[in-house]
Amino acid sequence: MNFDGLDAGMGEYSPSLHGTLDAGLEPSMDPHLNPTLLQAVELDPEGLAVPVPEPVHLMEGMFSELHSVVSEVGIPVTATHFDVQEEMLWMGNHRGHVTSFFGPTMGRYSSFQVHSTDDIRHIQSLETGVLFLSKCNLKCFTRGGLVMFDYPMDEGADMHSLLMTDNNTLLMGGLQNYVVEMDLNTVQETQKFTVEVPGVAIMRQTSRFFFCGHTSGKVTLRDLRSFKMEHEFDAFSGSLSDFDVHGNLLAACGFSSRGLNGLACDRFLMVYDLRMMRAVTPLQVHVDPLFLRFIPTYTSRLAIISQTGQCQFCEPTGLANVADIFHVNTVGQLLMSFDVSSSKQALAFGDSGGCVHLWSDAPEVSFNDYSRETDFALPCLVDTLPQLDWNHDLLPLSLIPTPLTSTEPLLSDWPTALVTPSPRRAPPVDPEILRTMKTVGFIGYAANPRTRPRNQVPYKIKDVELEYDNYNQVPESPIGRDEEKVTLDLFFLTFTMLVWTLFAGLEPHIPNAYCNCMIQVLYFLEPIRCLVQNHLCQKEFCLACELGFLFHMLDLSRGDPCQASNFLRAFRTIPEASALGLILADSDEQTGKARLGRLIQSWNRFILTQLHQETQEQEGPQAYRGASSSSLGSSGESAIGKLFGCEVENSSLCRCGKETVRSSLTLLFTMHYPEQNSQEKTVKEYDFAEILKKSICLEQSTQAWCENCEKYQPTVQTRNIRCLPDVLVINCEVNSAKEAEFWKVQAEYAFSKAMQKEAMEPTKPKEPPPLPNEWCLDGEEICSMEGFTFDTRAEDLRHVWIPLTMKMSISKSQGLEISSWPEGEELSASEEAEGAALYDLVVTVPHILDARTGGNLVAHIKVGETYHQRKEGVTHQQWYLFNDFLIEPIDKTEAAQFDVSWKVPAILYYAKRNYHSKYDLRIKNPIDASVLLTEASLARKQRKSHATFIPLMVSEMPQAGDLVGLDAEFVTLNQEEAELRSDGTKSTIKPSQMSVARITCVRGQGPNEGVPFIDDYISTQEQVVDYLTQYSGIKPGDLDAKISSKHLTTLKSTYLKLRFLIDTGVRFVGHGLQKDFRVINLLVLKDQVIDTVYLFHLPRKRMISLRFLAWYFLDLNIQGETHDSIEDARTALQLYRKYLELSRGGSSDEVRKVLKGLYEKGRQLDWKVPDSDAGDGQGSPKSSAVFPSVMGL
Q1: Which cofactors does this gene product need (predicted)?
Q2: Is the pLDDT of residue 391 over 50?
């Protein structure tokens, strides 16, 4: 809004206007303030005006003053606004302070500071808060005064108005050459529209146009979508002060140019007809208009307001009547702001003296037609006592505090001797355990001598304390090391105790880890394992690529569990997965609300379809950034389609005789069970092969469109298959009690048959062979035995309905034929010639029911000869149970048993016998040196001058054995969930979920040693709950491509760089690398990791921070305010060099002596690095020469 033509006195405010209200009021009161204005106003001690309720007599239909209230005396009110959600009136003043008043009585509701210096120019209420616009800032507060967001404008912005275009989008305009569109959900700028200078001061909106008022006197009409100018009205020659739109009329007031005399207020209102886009007869008024608003009640009245407080009402197409002029008693002050309530019953005026005037045309005024209830602060209840119901038996009488009148001590005041903490010492280790113990690293293993009851340890505090000193609380060990102790490592207890094989389990604490069992299923299908490890594409979130990375880790693991965090992260970004409901909320996983059986079947269908699409997509170039293309998945035919695909012919026959045939490719089949006749009390007996055939060759009646009849008609739809897949995938669809009962009854029928057969043909029990190779841990002598089987008796076939082997064939005469087949027998030559094939059961995925937790999904997998041949060099087949990281061998009948009361079938995989022979199972690593080449940053603001690393040259490509310093920083995606037990210990329910945010690699040798060649910030699409800035150095905005100035990349891009370095055979040097690689989701062989946290560590002692090691050995003061990964990686390299010097310069005893000195110094300083300027003699050993002669190297 332009105020150039207003009274010159408005530009400056007299200092007398800002005085405080003393007890006398008269000396400090503004001389322009009429004392009669304050007759109905009571001033509180803070100088705030509180209206004294008085009876107000209003004439119905005539506007008159209802209340006036002073907010801050002498501070101009620059903005007023009626809340559109609640019965509240908002005002903002020249000093950036806002106040709200409730209802027509103008009771003060809230008051707070929005901006420290700038005035409030526009106020807009929302459902959840209130927007306040100042010159260069937009803030949103709750109605109580809490900040919701603070959005700064670009430098040089001079904002004047805002306009809500919908519930979540607004436009902001001002005296600059652009208008900003902003999304309130993300609090980010979405578009910036260019406008002509001097900008847009006022904005209105109808269903057809945006209306923009310019200080040049023009009003432009702009398109609602593109914001392009459609029409223009040149309203005034000087400037525009206000305009409003209603229906088909636009009315504007402003200033006309008077040559050398400047601007003069024009008493003619310009009125435009928006139907014909032309001006109609101007409306002459009797006041100098500054504000105008349409007040449509019975007619389209206009309210015209002057700066001196005169108000006139008239029709826009009629004549103004002098009798319709009213006067706002501003006591000589100038009106600065004006607003009309949404109900059109109330007007609000703000003047330059800090006063707000409320006018109304009805005594019982409401600001909105439908207002929600306003929340008020609860009254203080400190001095009140609750009322007690003496008739209530369980009411605690302690609700009423009883004063202490006696001088006797209370029973709770225990003497000091009884409350002094006395720590309980650990008991000594049984000598028999120490005698028989074997050590691996710093962990000792011994058999339980069983001299004490299980889980019971007697404590003899007095006897034990005599055997301990202050430093060594463990008795001497016979194995020759003073600090050695018998421990059970937590990692070993958690995983190694549960994993009885060399298979790698998958950790279950990650969100959506319900699919762990199916990941293991895909891994043990050799063609799938080879396919995804040969696949590499440029998509950021490709499930085939992520599965390849995960399967590579499972290949390298020797019994250690892995986690599918990167795969599940990519899985959460796939829109189809979310649309199918496959992304579980944390609440659903914790409360067990998810129906896991149905969920895993949907996941099974989704993953096969997704892999089929991703591995057959033609990209150019095919491989990642120029790497050689893979042998699998490079052609248009997907290996997934070749493995699981089955060509299906769907026929639709209308009753008019019209038949439509369509062909398609299906990757799996769903079981369909026969409908139970209501008259039949018992379920008929069916063979599984019979039900499977009817499910594959499905015939059903349904309503479908017939082109011949040109309407929906009952049609018979029939499905037939033209070929047999190599792997038959079946979703069991046991999702209700009815289907579970069907499985139960059919299993009982099958069990009865087996018992009758056994009674007729008794068999001799077989002797069990020795235990299998895979059942043992590394290094144990028992692992030299080969595989085993269990003896199967009829009793073991209880709850078994599905066959272990089926014969399938397709003939032209009879179509698909399926029958059960004895497991150990082969087909005859004639049967093979006819195209018959044997299918062996290789996978079953059941849902284990648990009403309390929702149950769990497990997998029974028949691990084939190819895997054992590759890993163990033996020919062997064996069934295993995969339950996250619990893996153990099972009998084949257990895989086929389904007691539906607790174990419900979900997915079955049948594989064609010897199907591997036609697939190329070779793996060619698709990751080459091109991944280390220079790449563009995702950040828009990143410049070359900001680069913190120098990429490797071709001549610097790493070789096996080269050193690479590595450090990573992380942010938190989900906080840890824990609970406190009654004994005060903490129990972790769900660990925190971390995400890598920055990865740095520095050169470990050569002329550029210590120079980074990778310093990538990882962009994330997931919400970060804690940036851990104090420990990571990552700040909000560093990972946002729109505003970050860092070298921002995708996680996949950086992951490939590290994978190439690992595959090359480099050795990584760092501090705490085990956690770094775990969060990055990489598996690195132990001989490729040099971790300084273990180099400078004595057994049974605490781990030492990198900062303390750098100060002690290198005299470096690092990590002062925050962490920097480049600095940490360089420091780790220097510490490794120092360790090599210690090892070469002295014996192991001398190195041990140095480490003991390190721990002694740490205890003295409480492991805190002293200040560099401290003069207390606490310098580092390197600077003060306290090392032995070894350290002088």
Answers
A1: a divalent metal cation
A2: yes
Residue 1058 banded pLDDT, cuts 50, 70, 90 = very high
pLDDT of the residue at 485: 32
3-state secondary structure of 1093: helix
Question: Which residue do the tokens 């003939």 mark?
Answer: 811
Query: How many other C-beta atoms lie within 10 A of the C-beta of residue 1004?
Result: 24
Task: Annotate 288-321 with three-state secondary structure.
Answer: CCCEEEEEECCCEEEEEECCCCEEEEECCCCCCC
Please report how many Cα atoms fall inside a 13 Å half-sphere around the Cα of residue 299, on the Cβ side: 10
pLDDT tens digits, one per residue of 113-137:
999 889 999 999 999 999 999 999 9
Residue type, 1085: L
Q: What does the alpha-carbon distance between residue 158 and residue 932 come to, in Å, rounded to a whole number?
A: 47
Four-CA torsion 126, 3, 94, 31, nearest 10 degrees: -130
Sequence-ordered alpha helix ranges (H) in 970-1086: 1029-1032, 1051-1064, 1073-1080
Q: Has 1128 been labeled as part of a binding site?
A: yes
The residue count for the chain: 1193
Paired tokens of 304: 């015209």
The per-residue pLDDT for 456 is 63
Q: How far apart are CA 971 and CA 1097, in angstroms?
A: 27
**Cα 193 from chain centre:** 32
Q: Sign of dihedral through CA atoms 96, 102, 104, 108?
A: negative
Residue 117's φ and ψ, nearest 5 degrees, are: -130, -40
pLDDT of residue 807: 93
Q: Hey, what are 288's tokens?
A: 């100098």
DSSP string, 26-62: TTTS-TTS-GGGGTTEEE-TTS-EEEPP------TTS
Structure tokens at 1065: 């055979």
Which residues belong to CATH 3.30.420.10 in the chain?
929-978+988-1165
How far, in Å, are 131, 528, 552, 620 from residue 627 at the CA level? 53, 21, 18, 11
Q: CA torsion angle for 397, 398, 403, 408 (degrees, to 10)?
A: 100
Q: Report the distance separating Cα 132 and Cα 134, nearest Å.
A: 7
Report pTM.
Answer: 0.57
The conformation of residue 334, written as its DSSP 8-state character, comes to P
Nearest to 101 by CA among 122, 83, 125: 83
Pairing status of strand 659-666 against strand 646-654: antiparallel
- Determine the average pLDDT of the residues in 190-211: 91
Nearest to 242 by CA among 264, 262, 221, 270: 270
> pLDDT tens digits for 936-988?
788 766 565 567 888 888 888 899 999 999 999 988 887 777 777 666 677 76
Task: Determine the angle formed by the axes of helices 543-556 and 565-573, rounding to 10 degrees.
Answer: 170
Q: Over the Cα atoms of the chain, what is R_g?
A: 41
Q: Is 1076 annotated as a binding residue?
A: yes
Residue 1040 tokens, joined? 């946002």
Q: How, if at all, do strands 669-670 and 727-731 pair? A: parallel
1023 and 1040 Cβ atoms separated by less than 8 Å: no
Query: Above pLDDT 90, what percent of the chain?
Result: 38
Beta strands in 975-1011 (DSSP E): 977-980, 986-990, 993-1003
778 annotated among ligand-binding-site residues: no
Q: What is each CA distance from 313 to 161, 866, 869, 1025, in whole angstroms? A: 25, 92, 96, 55
967 annotated ligand binder:
yes
Fold of 929-978+988-1165: Nucleotidyltransferase; domain 5 (3.30.420)
Lowest-pLDDT range of 454-458, 470-474, 788-792, 967-971: 470-474
Cβ neighbours around 582 below 10 Å, total: 20
Bridge-partner residues for 1067, per DSSP? 963
**The pLDDT value given to residue 1180:** 62
**Residue 697 exposed, middle or buried by CB count within 10 Å (0-12, 13-18, 19+):** middle
Over 494-525, what HEC string results? HHHCCECCCCCCECCCCCCHHHHHHHHHHHCC
